[in-house]
């Protein structure tokens, strides 16, 4: 049975139901069009002849074969406007904060990509005060970078801290599978910082159906594009946790009988994630979208398909690790990377930045070797002892995430640690820099 | 009459079309989506159904939509005006598109419609010509651009008429040739060629014999890439594939560089757009952009066009090679292209090979690499395409299908190591695993003998031996402890470290060190080997490390100084003093 209300087609005979999808016979339906099945939001994911397959975001529980299916004739959309500021919304872009409905202009989400020749090369440094970031992995507006963290790391706290220090015009939070506690945490941190007006949040918590999460990044990024393109604002998008997003992708693709590739992830995982992360952009007229994400990993394993594909897409990663020597969380200098740092270090920061950074990390690597020696029961040389002393100071005074100083101070601290523990010849730096910055008196 | 059809099914970017006539594998069709034709390519035919991959988002497409088949395969437009341009994977000129965002079905002309070129005839009336013969030339960014008999013209022809020297549009007739049957053919500066088919307008493809200089010691000295050769760089993310390729695109001694940014980051392409117009080619003093063409299909652009992008790039390279030029083709990353193939193959529910890649992946890769090469043209001139691709192995594991298939096809292997990258030993190319097969070619050895030094090959092998023995010594030291091994082990270890720090490592961000001219490479290698070849006496292992670190430190300063300048000589003298101590 078919009837038509203005632009909407209605059907009532479902032929197939799985955990995440249902199919029915219908004509004239567009790919990726939205529908409402028994009151639940759904999207067309496949059409063969007159059989249309819909993905039901909140799951198919309780859907009867005679459910009413209303096709909306358009893909998912968000109402964008200045009234987004300060709002907490669900994955569908509807208020969850008790406030009024959005009044803005309806905009398709997951829209087209920016023409690469219309981008500008990012060059604006984002200072966070954290040396593990500013000194070793400097961030730039228009960059996309995730935290790689085991689930027990305080990644959401660190992300909130970075966001508040980043001096963005708008902070857009996309929460996927957030615990209710973390959701309330974000809310109160932003409130206490007096930043609420600058925030827009799209929240899917663990209490919401997992497939709904698939909408969150596109919602957040559509809002971001509105502010960055039309208002020329500096927008910071926070996406946490992209691992839970990817898990939702695999649920849908498995239900659709696709051949899974590594770690039961869909073969299209790379393209799916890239479409999200590549929304990060610097526009020539000042607007920008910076994406900081969280990818939780298991036991530090970055070879799993989710962190692996992410690392191939993002412009580096910030790897959180607990350093048992100092009992603090640090940003691991070995596995962390900011690929855009060379656009600003030594240009927006002091000339010695690059060499100090590399020399310190090289010596920190020597300390790691010394540690291995120690663990294997060998005697340490004098040099080994000094690298260990250096590493300890380096972790404590620079890598720990509770450090909050400016970049010059970070550089001075590093020179001090180097000169306290090594001879000039041992640091392997350019002589003119050593001449200029080597602190003269030893302790 | 062109074949028509109607959309029957849509699964992501795979569309099934019911056809009403003859279609061909790889034929291009246009799906008429709400008045905008969207380009798609047939990748499978079954009965009267064509399975097509759409080079655009399929959002909104409906069953029953009209489809028109074009009768041709995916083609590029070849002619003057390709240099310095930024194309997408289907050769649309990105700069000609309007707006900030890419619009579906926005297909732009790849050349310049109303630019006049100064044409100079090279052939003469009554000359016998075949596909690829040079009829004349125009100047494109200071480069002689040959106007050739179109590659599709497979017979032998006589030149009947040739335009006089003068200014012409690319679309103007510049020659008329007559085939044996007496039929006349008009020729303009523009021709088309299907990207999946190699251009074979050459008589011979000899083995490469010259070294293609890149200014990177890890390449030129230790693992040279040959002009017309092939190589690949596999490595986990963040280990330096793109930095290496960019360095080579800036520094390599090539007439033209074609960069295929295949499924990677847009910002990396932006880096080229913004820096190349400013940076100079060290050899010619001209801006780098003048010799560069970019094919950008970044990771957020449609997946099907990603596969096309590497073929588009290769075809453009082949076109310029036929003009007797030295082309460097770079593709970053070929894994993304393989993944695009995998996505389609999975959607078509084909029987998957290892890691769900299509079964014929090894053949596809080796056919592609085979299109590179050094060629002799019918007129006795030569041209070359040197191809260097990157591979992004899942999980950094080199035992995966794309790496393994590529290893069989490419002759140079530059394996990036996570461990070296973690300890910032850049470029993170593993000095012991990596290889160049060219170094053992008779022809290449002869070339090195003539052009670098008679004993060069032996010296390179010697340096590599020091690296290997150092690695072995280090393993022993790690197992037995510093005191558990004779001092000699420490000396062997540190000799290798010297080779590593001074020859293998190179700072891509340092203005001077990033480009090391061949004569400096030679000087440094001999200098390093002069030290490693010596016998040493040390009191204890601490002293070994300290002394070698001093040597490394001062030699690094030499790397950071321009060759044969006062600075360089100053550090060289310091080195001589240090060497006197032992
Ligand atoms: N030769 C090098 N010299 C200095 N830094 C390098 C070098 N190679 C890589 N890096 C650092 O590593 C980062 C990642 O390199 P990139 O080439 O983008 O990796 P990949 O393409 O393998 O993922 C760069 O942004 C840079 O910071
Ligand atoms: Mg790369």
What does this molecule look like?
The complex is a heterodimer of chains A (443) and B (582). Chain A folds into three domains: 2-71, Beta Barrel (Elongation Factor Tu (Ef-tu), domain 3); 77-342, Rossmann fold, CATH 3.40.50.12240; 353-437, no CATH class. Chain A contains eleven helices and 22 strands. Chain A has helices spanning 131-134, 155-165, 180-192, 216-230, 242-255, 269-277, 305-313, 353-375, 382-399, 407-421, 431-437; strands spanning 2-5, 8-11, 14-17, 21-25, 34-37, 40-48, 51-56, 69-71, 77-80, 87-90, 105-108, 125-126, 139-140, 144-149, 170-178, 199-205, 234-240, 281-282, 288-296, 316-323, 328-331, 337-338. In chain A, strands 10, 14, 15, 16, 17, 18, 19, 20, 21 and 22 form a ten-stranded mixed beta sheet that branches. Chain A has an eight-stranded antiparallel beta sheet with strand order 1-2-8-5-6-7-4-3, with no helix packed on it. In chain A, strands 9-11 form a two-stranded antiparallel ribbon. The model of chain A has no long low-confidence stretch (mean pLDDT 92). In chain B, strand 11 and strand 12 form a beta hairpin. Chain B has helices at 217-222, 241-251, 266-275, 303-321, 334-347, 361-369, 401-409, 418-422, 442-451, 456-480, 487-504, 518-532, 541-560, 566-580, and strands spanning 4-11, 14-19, 27-33, 36-46, 49-54, 66-73, 75-78, 86-88, 116-121, 128-129, 134-140, 143-148, 157-162, 166-169, 175-179, 184-187, 191-194, 230-234, 256-262, 292-297, 326-332, 373-376, 382-391, 412-413, 435-436. The N and C termini of chain B lie far apart (86 Å). Chain B has four domains: 4-73, Thrombin, subunit H; 113-189, RNA polymerase II/Efflux pump adaptor protein, barrel-sandwich hybrid domain (OB fold (Dihydrolipoamide Acetyltransferase, E2P), Beta Barrel), CATH 2.40.50.100; 217-436, Rossmann fold (3-Layer(aba) Sandwich), CATH 3.40.50; 456-580, Bovine Mitochondrial F1-atpase, Atp Synthase Beta Chain, Chain D, domain 3 (Bovine Mitochondrial F1-ATPase, ATP Synthase Beta Chain, Chain D, domain3, Orthogonal Bundle), CATH 1.10.1140. Chain B has 582 residues and is of the alpha+beta class. The radius of gyration of chain B is 27 Å and the shape is globular. Chain B contains 14 helices and 25 strands. In chain B, the strands form five sheets. In chain B, strands 8, 18, 19, 20, 21, 22, 23, 24 and 25 form a nine-stranded mixed beta sheet that branches. In chain B, strands 1-2-5-4-3-6 form a six-stranded antiparallel beta barrel. Chain B has a four-stranded antiparallel beta sheet with strand order 12-11-9-14, with no helix packed on it. The mean pLDDT of chain B is 95.
């Amino acid at each position: 049975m078919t009837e038509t209300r203005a632009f909407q087609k209605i059907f009532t005979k479902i032929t197939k139901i799985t955990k995440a999808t249902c199919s029915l016979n219908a004509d004239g339906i567009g790919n990726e069009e939205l529908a409402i099945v028994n009151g639940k939001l759904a999207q067309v994911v496949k059409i063969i002849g007159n059989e249309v397959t819909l993905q039901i975001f909140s799951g198919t529980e309780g859907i009867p074969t005679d459910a009413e299916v209303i096709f909306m004739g358009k893909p998912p959309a968000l109402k964008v406007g200045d009234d987004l500021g300060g709002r907490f919304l669900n994955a569908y872009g509807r208020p969850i904060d008790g406030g009024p409905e959005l009044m803005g202009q309806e905009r398709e989400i997951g829209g087209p990509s920016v023409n690469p020749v219309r981008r500008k090369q990012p060059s604006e440094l984002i200072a966070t005060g954290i040396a593990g970031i500013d000194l070793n992995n400097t961030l730039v507006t228009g960059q996309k970078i995730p935290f790689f963290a085991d689930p027990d790391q305080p990644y959401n706290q660190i992300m909130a801290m970075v966001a508040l220090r980043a001096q963005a015009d708008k902070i857009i939070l996309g929460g996927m599978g957030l615990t209710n506690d973390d959701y309330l945490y974000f809310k109160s941190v932003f409130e206490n910082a007096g930043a609420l007006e600058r925030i827009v949040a799209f929240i899917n918590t663990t209490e919401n159906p997992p497939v709904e999460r698939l909408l969150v990044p596109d919602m957040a990024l559509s809002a971001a594009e509105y502010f960055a393109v039309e208002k020329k604002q500096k927008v910071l998008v926070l996406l946490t946790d992209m691992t839970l997003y990817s898990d939702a992708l695999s649920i849908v693709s498995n239900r659709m009988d696709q051949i899974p590739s590594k770690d039961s992830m869909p073969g299209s995982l790379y393209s799916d994630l890239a479409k999200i992360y590549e929304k990060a952009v610097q526009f020539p007229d000042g607007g920008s979208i910076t994406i900081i994400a969280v990818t939780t990993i298991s036991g530090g394993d970055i070879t799993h398909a989710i962190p692996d594909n992410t690392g191939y897409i993002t412009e580096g990663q910030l790897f959180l690790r607990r350093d048992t020597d100092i009992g603090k969380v640090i940003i691991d200098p070995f596995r962390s990377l900011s690929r855009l740092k060379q656009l600003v270090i030594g240009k927006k920061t002091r000339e010695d930045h690059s060499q100090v950074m590399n020399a310190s990390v090289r010596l920190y690597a020597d300390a790691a070797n010394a540690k291995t020696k120690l663990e294997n029961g060998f005697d340490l040389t004098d040099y080994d002892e000094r690298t260990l002393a250096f590493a300890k100071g380096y972790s404590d005074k620079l890598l720990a995430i509770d450090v909050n100083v400016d970049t010059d101070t970070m550089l001075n601290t590093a020179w001090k640690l180097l000169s306290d523990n090594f001879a000039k010849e041992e640091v392997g730096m350019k002589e003119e820099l050593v001449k200029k910055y080597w602190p003269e008196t030893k302790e | 009459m062109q074949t028509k059809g109607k959309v029957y099914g849509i699964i992501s970017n795979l569309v099934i079309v019911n056809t009403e006539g003859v279609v061909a594998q790889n034929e291009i069709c246009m799906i008429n989506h709400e008045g905008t034709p969207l380009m798609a390519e047939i990748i499978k035919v079954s009965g009267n159904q064509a399975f097509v991959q759409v080079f655009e988002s399929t959002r909104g497409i409906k069953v029953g939509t009209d489809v028109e088949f074009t009768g041709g395969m995916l083609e590029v437009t070849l002619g003057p005006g390709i240099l310095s341009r930024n194309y997408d994977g289907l050769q649309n000129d990105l700069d000609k598109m309007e707006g900030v965002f890419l619009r579906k079905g926005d297909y732009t002309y790849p050349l310049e419609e109303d630019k006049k070129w100064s044409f100079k005839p090279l052939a003469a009336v009554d000359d016998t010509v075949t596909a690829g013969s040079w009829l004349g030339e125009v100047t494109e960014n200071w480069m002689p651009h040959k106007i050739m008999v179109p590659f599709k013209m497979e017979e032998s022809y006589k030149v009947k008429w040739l335009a006089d020297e003068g200014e012409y549009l690319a679309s103007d007739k510049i020659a008329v040739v007559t085939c044996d049957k007496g039929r006349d053919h008009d020729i303009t500066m523009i021709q088309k060629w299907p990207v999946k088919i190699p251009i074979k307008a050459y008589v011979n493809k000899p083995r490469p014999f010259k070294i293609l200089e890149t200014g990177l010691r890890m390449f030129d000295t230790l693992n040279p890439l040959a002009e017309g050769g092939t190589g690949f760089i596999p490595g986990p993310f963040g280990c330096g594939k793109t930095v290496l390729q960019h360095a080579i695109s800036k520094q390599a001694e090539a007439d033209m560089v074609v960069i295929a940014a295949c499924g990677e980051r847009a910002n990396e392409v932006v880096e080229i757009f913004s820096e190349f117009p400013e940076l100079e080619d060290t050899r010619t003093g001209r801006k780098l952009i003048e010799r560069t063409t970019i094919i950008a299909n970044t990771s957020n652009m449609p997946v099907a066009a990603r596969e096309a992008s590497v073929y588009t790039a290769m075809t453009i390279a082949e076109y310029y090679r036929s003009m007797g030029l030295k082309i460097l083709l770079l593709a970053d990353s070929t894994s993304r292209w393989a993944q695009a193939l995998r996505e389609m193959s999975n959607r078509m529910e084909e029987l998957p090979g290892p890691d769900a890649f299509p079964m014929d992946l090894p053949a596809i890769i080796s056919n592609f690499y085979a299109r590179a090469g050094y060629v002799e043209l019918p007129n006795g001139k030569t041209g070359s395409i040197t191809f260097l691709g990157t591979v992004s192995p899942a999980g950094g594991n080199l035992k995966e299908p794309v790496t393994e298939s590529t290893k069989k096809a490419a002759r140079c292997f530059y394996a990036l190591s996570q461990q070296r990258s973690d300890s910032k030993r850049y470029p993170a190319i593993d000095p012991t695993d990596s290889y160049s097969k060219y170094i053992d070619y008779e022809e290449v050895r002869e070339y090195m003998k003539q052009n670098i030094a008679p004993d060069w090959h032996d010296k390179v092998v010697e340096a590599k031996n020091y690296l290997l023995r150092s690695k072995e010594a280090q393993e022993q030291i790690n197992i037995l402890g510093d005191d558990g091994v004779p001092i000699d082990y420490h000396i062997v270890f540190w000799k290798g470290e010297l080779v590593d720090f001074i020859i293998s490592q190179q700072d891509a961000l340092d203005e001077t060190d990033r480009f090391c001219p061949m004569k400096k490479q030679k000087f440094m290698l001999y200098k390093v080997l002069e030290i490693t070849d010596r016998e040493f006496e040390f009191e204890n292992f601490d002293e070994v490390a300290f002394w070698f670190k001093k040597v490394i430190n001062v030699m690094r300063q030499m790397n950071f100084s321009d060759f044969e300048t006062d600075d360089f000589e100053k550090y060289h003298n310091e080195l001589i003093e240090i060497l006197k101590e032992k």
